[in-house]
Design goal:
Shape: elongated
Number of helices: 1
Distance between the termini: 29 Å
Number of strands: 0
Largest sheet: none
Order of helices and strands: H
Strand content: under 5%
């Protein structure tokens, strides 16, 4: 599966949010 760069940036944001929890 080819993942657009936009999704990569969103994935990074989600990862940071998970760390805050």
């Amino acid at each position: 599966m080819e993942i657009p760069s936009d999704i990569l940036t969103i994935d990074e944001m989600v990862d940071e949010l998970c760390q805050l929890k």
